[in-house]
Fold this protein.
Amino acid sequence: MRSYTTLTMSLLIASLLFVACKEKEDDPEEIKTSVMKAEKDFEKMAAEKGIAEAFWYYAAPDAVIKRQNDTLIKGKENIKKYYSTDFYKRASVKWTPDFIDISEEGDMAYTYGKYIWFSSDSAGSVNEFAGIFHTVWKKQPDGDWKYVWD
């Protein structure tokens, strides 16, 4: 009887610890903070290592980006190729999410906000293009956030 009670108590304590850890991990504000961190790390990488590298690194394997004339670029490698043109090599981009929301399960999120592209033409003049972005993020099995739509 004593081993049954010990086993029951051990299972109860383990269950409570699991639930307590699970609740902390699934705190919506903490998840939103982790998505914001992914956004800011993405932006920082674009500034430091280049746009092509950042868009490749933060893309999920099956990511899709929509660009001018409703063109869809599908997959990490195609996204990197798209951003490897001379235009993007001479460009920089800044953005800030104005809004973040997450799924009930905490494994998907979306952000939107404002961006500004800066590009230099052959004469060295800097042009600015501003707009609104919308990104859909998916939590990967390793816990990292990668975008699936941008």
